[in-house]
């Protein structure tokens, strides 16, 4: 897998900043009564205004029933990942995960966040906070000289301690000129095992937890991944560069 030079890591910063700014903006505007397509349109306008390039739109891996129809993944309540930006109208209390990646000046960054629309509930707040804490722990473990399993174990431990469902079929990944590169970054694992973490490795770390069990189902569209038991799910993701000085979060929001 390709390690980035310090200059290349620096060149990825504008992509990271752009992704962060779009997610912050979406979080600010998302409210009851808006559709998921409204959010997608807003992000698309920001992409055009920045001269960026969507890496979602038209993306068509073998599992998709159709090419990806938007620039965002918008996953509501029991949808955990890859929810399509549809005409669904957001309701008070909805748990919304937004996942966004795009290419800026030839480099990609990828990030996701989850929040509740309007009224919050203790159940969703705890799930979201635990997912964010797992992301922070995974980032803290992304140290040069460590192993991939350090990240995976840090994430998995926090999810399990919260009593949440975790499914390792989907996880993080390398990021570079394209969205999905080697290596895979699992959300479950054992510390001190797996790939050595060397400076120049840039990865998306992305815990996603389910309030219920470990099972998931996929909609007929081939994209939308939902909890098997209908419980809510949360997802948090940052693109992180492992440098000699430690992890640098390229998609940090202020
Ligand atoms: N950004 C997602 C991830 O974290 C993948 C989105 S797939 C797409 O890996 F098809 F929706 F683009
Ligand atoms: Co990702």
UniProtKB/TrEMBL annotation:
InterPro entries: Creatinase/aminopeptidase-like, Pept_M24, Pept_M24_MAP, Pept_M24A_MAP1
GO CC terms in record: cytosol
Cofactor note: Binds 2 divalent metal cations per subunit. Has a high-affinity and a low affinity metal-binding site. The true nature of the physiological cofactor is under debate. The enzyme is active with cobalt, zinc, manganese or divalent iron ions. Most likely, methionine aminopeptidases function as mononuclear Fe(2+)-metalloproteases under physiological conditions, and the catalytically relevant metal-binding site has been assigned to the histidine-containing high-affinity site.
EC number: 3.4.11.18
Names of the cofactor(s): Co(2+); Zn(2+); Mn(2+); Fe(2+)
The keyword S-adenosyl-L-methionine is assigned to this record: no
An example Gene Ontology molecular-function term: metalloaminopeptidase activity
Binding site for a divalent metal cation 1: 99, 110, 237
Annotated positions binding a divalent metal cation 2: 110, 173, 206, 237
Cross-referenced Pfam families: Peptidase_M24 (PF00557)
Superkingdom of the organism of origin: Bacteria
UniProt binding sites for substrate: 82, 180
UniProt entry keywords in alphabetical sequence: Aminopeptidase, Hydrolase, Metal-binding, Protease
Domain Peptidase M24: residue ranges: 11-243
Spans through the membrane: none
GO biological process: proteolysis
Family: Belongs to the peptidase M24A family. Methionine aminopeptidase type 1 subfamily.
Subunit structure: Monomer.
General function of this protein: Removes the N-terminal methionine from nascent proteins. The N-terminal methionine is often cleaved when the second residue in the primary sequence is small and uncharged (Met-Ala-, Cys, Gly, Pro, Ser, Thr, or Val). Requires deformylation of the N(alpha)-formylated initiator methionine before it can be hydrolyzed.
Name of the protein this chain belongs to: Methionine aminopeptidase
């Amino acid at each position: 897998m390709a390690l980035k030079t310090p200059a290349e890591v620096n060149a990825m910063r504008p992509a990271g900043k752009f992704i962060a700014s779009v997610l912050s903006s979406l979080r600010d505007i998302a409210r009851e009564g808006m559709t998921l397509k409204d959010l997608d349109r807003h992000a698309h306008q920001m992409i055009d205004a920045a001269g960026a390039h969507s890496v979602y739109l038209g993306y068509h891996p073998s599992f998709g029933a159709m090419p990806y129809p938007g620039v965002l993944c918008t996953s509501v309540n029991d949808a955990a990942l890859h929810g399509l930006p549809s005409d669904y109208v957001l309701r008070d209390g909805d748990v919304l995960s937004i996942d966004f990646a795009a290419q800026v000046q030839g480099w990609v960054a990828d990030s996701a966040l989850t929040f509740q629309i309007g009224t919050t509930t203790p159940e969703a707040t705890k799930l979201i906070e635990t997912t964010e804490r797992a992301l922070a722990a995974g980032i803290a473990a992304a140290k040069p000289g460590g192993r991939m399993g350090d990240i995976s174990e840090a994430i998995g431990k926090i999810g399990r301690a919260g009593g949440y469902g975790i499914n390792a079929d989907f996880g993080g990944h390398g990021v570079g000129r394209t969205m999905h590169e080697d290596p895979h970054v699992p959300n479950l694992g054992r510390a001190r095992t797996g790939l050595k973490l060397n400076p120049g490795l840039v990865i998306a770390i992305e815990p996603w937890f389910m309030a219920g069990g470990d099972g998931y189902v996929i909609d007929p569209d081939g994209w939308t991944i939902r909890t098997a038991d209908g419980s809510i799910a949360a997802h948090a993701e940052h693109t992180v560069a492992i440098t000699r000085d430690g992890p640098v979060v390229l998609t940090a929001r202020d």
